[in-house]
Amino acid sequence: MTKSHVGNEIARKRELSLLKSLLRRKNIPQKSWARIISEIIGGTRKTASRRLADESVLSLGELFAIADHFKTTVTAMLQSDVPAEKIVPGARKALLRIGKSQCACTVVTRKSAPEAQDLFVAYEDEAEECLVVCPTDDAPKGKAQRGVLHLHVDAFGTSGPVVVIVDDEQTATLPFFRFIQIDGGFNTKYFSHPEPVLALLETRPLPDGYILDWTLADGETSRGLIEAIRRVDKTCPIILLTGTIQARIENENDIAELVRTHNIDVLLKPFPTSIIVEKLKSVLNRQTQMHFAAEAEY
Questions:
Q1: pTM of the full predicted structure?
Q2: How many CA within 13 A on the CB side of residue 27?
Q3: pLDDT, tens digit (0-9, with 9 covering 90-100), for 220-275
Q4: Which structural domain range is residue 240 located in?
Q5: Cβ-count burial of 3 within 10 angstroms (0-12 exposed, 13-18 middle, 19+ buried)?
Q6: CATH number, domain with residue 66
Q7: End of a domain among 118, 136, 153?
């Protein structure tokens, strides 16, 4: 199995111990666990018992089935308490990059250079202002690298619609990034500043939607980025997030103009993340229906 395939497997699956934690919180007797698992995700009780004993992995589809059964969300399951023996000292939040895909992760690195057996390495990305983890063969030249001792993926890879998030506050954005990707089923790409997105607009296919923070670093706003997006895509959903609209009247006027001329949606901070997920799904579903209707008329 290639390193890329190893990374994709990590990104798509989680330990069955997450389900065990959920069953404990629901006060379900342990003798009933195998029966419940077999009813939710299929298979026999014997198979379910073996999976519990081995603490094998859950596919993304199985996680959603479990979340639906217990009327919770995948995010809530992933945020369950981690057993004390699984807490790893020295862990840092980072972005895992596999090919063109990336997702949030937690990583523990060596204090020295990578060693021959290291499948992944970590390096500081000045442009993104964060620690980045990637397969050893994909590591950029000329950057100081450390070997990865422990890698814990915080979000699943997905083949859903591509949604770009731009926000310069990385610490606050990563949990949001995680929710959009896991609960929303979107293929989410995060950037801390607009320049990489401008480069992305030169490629095809274009992203399916954008979530932009109004206020970016160095006093910059998302106005220029919105205008650039609309030059190449007139209809894709753009959701603008702002917490300053009530503080300065010029912000309100600027944003009102963008709403009128570029067909964007505005959400005031703080906001429930689930609203953004449903807004994106609603707009994308409506566009899909319009596309099929146009084809039918043709």
A1: 0.51
A2: 0
A3: 899 999 999 999 999 899 999 887 664 555 578 888 899 999 999 988 877 777 78
A4: 162-297
A5: middle
A6: 1.10.260
A7: 153
